[in-house]
Amino acid sequence: MPTVSKICIYPIKSLDGVEVKEASVLPSGALQGDREFAMFDEQGKFVNGKRNPKVHQLRTKFILESKVISLQIQGSDEEQSFNLEAEKPALEGWLSSFFGFTVKVRQNLLTGFPDDTVSTGPTIVSNGTLKEVASWYSHLDENDVRRQLRSTIEIDGIPAFWEDRLFSETGDVVPFQIGNLNFLGVNPCQRCIVFARDAVTGKTHPKFQKIFITKRQETLPQWVTTSRFDHFYKLTVNTRLASLGTENQIIRVGDKVNLLT
Fold this sequence. Notes:
Layout: E1 3-9, E2 18-20, E3 22-25, E4 37-40, E5 58-63, E6 68-73, E7 79-83, H1 88-99, E8 104-107, E9 124-126, H2 127-134, H3 142-149, E10 153-156, E11 174-178, E12 181-190, H4 208-219, E13 234-241, E14 249-252, E15 257-259
Parallel strand pairs: 9-10
Antiparallel strand pairs: 1-2, 1-10, 3-14, 4-8, 5-6, 6-7, 11-12, 11-15, 12-13
């Protein structure tokens, strides 16, 4: 039986995540607190790993209840802490100094700042998938792949790539449950350059993408809907809540995951 084994939320988009035992699901389908904040430059563009590899040098810790972030530059002993609401100007000043340009921190309590603004539900991956992908690279382990993928819901008790059952032909969705909440699996997630980088150093493995594409195609389960793979640099599944606008409900570690088809 597929079971939720980990829940990770990322309070500030592109920075380190926090593992939690449960998370509220907002009426938008997003997990409360996930990507609730994001960094922007003066042109209003995200300051993220895709556009600025320097992001990978930041190590962060969060106290979720009080919205306190502690920042540390990789390799430094100095740590600075800020309240994300009461001390936002000071946080923005610290980040601006670090990046070398003006950085603003914005908040979105409704959906957060997901990459997929249509399918705002949790991203799903199985523990077996993390282990399988890690086995393709001599320099990676399961935790490394987890940090690079940055998924919110991890499931266990099933084989690698089981989550590929959560999408179907283009335009179709796959209904499934986490606990008593109904979700729709939408599509496999296209990966970006960040996936090929070491999550701590930001260095890109020169053959990462080539190895991944080759192995992903080789290990693609026979029952997978291949029409969703115009290329094979895809992993994890984007989802959305089946009925938007419902009251906040909770996903917990240990919840069962059931296909409804």
